[in-house]
Structures are given as C-alpha cells and as structure tokens.
Amino acid sequence: MQTGKVKFFNESKGFGFIVDDETNQEIFVHVTGLGGAVIRENDSVSYETTDGKKGLNAVNVRKLS
To answer: Which InterPro entries is this protein grouped with (predicted)?
Structure first.
C-alpha cells in the first residue's frame, strides 16, 4: 500500500487528487475508488493504484488516523 495526502477532493463532482508521499506524484482519485470512505483535503490516506484512461488512479483508498 502506498501512502499520501489528499491535495484536493470535490465531493459534489466525486473526484480529486492524492499526492504520493514518496514520489510527490499526483494520483487521480474517483469516488468509486473510495470504498465508502470520506476524504477531505489534507487527509493522510493509504491506497493502491491501477491504470486509468489518463494515467494512474487511486483505488482502495483508506483514511489513516
């Protein structure tokens, strides 16, 4: 599992970006990859990545305490 911080998440549109802790790469996250979790800007999260249409997508996103 990778870890990162939520840079931006628009709840009404259902998407945002996570910045990876190790690479500082921005990873796209869609509400379907949250598995019911609620995330907000600056939350620390763990996640996995999968190939999407325009690059990597975060999936199995979980908020860290």
So the answer is: Ca-reg_mRNA-binding_domain, Cold_shock_CspA, CSD, CSD_CS, CSP_DNA-bd, NA-bd_OB-fold
